[in-house]
Design goal:
Layout: H1 2-20, H2 25-34, H3 40-49, H4 54-84, H5 93-107, H6 110-115
Helix pairs in contact: 1-2, 2-4, 3-4
């Protein structure tokens, strides 16, 4: 329930805020999805929740499970949202070739590079 409610709140909150500030339709549509990943503050909340006794353990378990789900799924959804919004462009062949050449060069030892 926590995961669904938080996800809906993030999406709807970002959507309404973006509409209210007259952002483009692309931003309104994809901003909420990019806000799903969580970790740092939630993990800090788990430590604080443990001080609440029995209820704190329940809060900790729910939060840690949610962090697991969000950190597994969130980055993938963020990447896809950014692609669909046109913020991420496919890598050009020139960049791919340059990257491949650097990887090949890194495989050789410094002595082999010096001999060339």
């Amino acid at each position: 329930m926590y995961i669904i409610t938080r996800s809906a709140g993030k999406y709807l909150g970002a959507f309404v805020s973006a509409k209210g500030t007259h952002c483009s339709d692309t931003i309104c549509k994809y901003l909420g999805i990019t806000l799903l990943p969580q970790a740092g503050v939630a993990l800090g909340m788990c430590v604080t929740a443990q001080q609440l006794g029995e209820q704190g353990g329940l809060i900790r378990n729910i939060t840690l499970f949610a962090v697991l789900i969000y950190e597994l799924v969130g980055p993938l959804l963020t990447k896809e949202s950014l692609k669909k919004a046109g913020e991420i462009q496919p890598m050009s062949e020139e960049v791919k070739n340059c990257r491949q050449a650097k990887l090949e060069a890194a495989k050789t030892t410094p002595y082999e590079r010096y001999k060339k």
